[in-house]
Amino acid sequence: MDYSKLDSSCFNGSYKEFIELIGYKNTLLVYNHFAGQYVTFPKKFLSEQYLYEAIVNEYDGTNAKALAKKYGYSYSWVMKILKREHCNK
């Protein structure tokens, strides 16, 4: 059956939303790769390693609150990263 000719309303649950969001071809790629598996999408998009390096590199001594807001973390989490970096030097 050629599913590409079907309207998105013909598809089950999340596949309908995927087709509307990323198109049929990309949905088929996701389906073929993950079909039958339970997949979750973490709320945080960036890896902790990337965030750690970015925060350390972008910190200028005064912008911890701005970095927390930029990356969607708390001020205390950013300060924890900066303190850990300071202790490792």
TrEMBL record:
It comes from the Bacteria. InterPro entries: Homeodomain-like_sf, Mor_transcription_activator. Residues 23-86 form the Mor transcription activator domain. Transmembrane segments: none annotated. SUPFAM superfamilies: Homeodomain-like. This is Mor transcription activator domain-containing protein. The lineage of its organism: Bacteria, Bacillati, Bacillota, Bacilli, Bacillales.
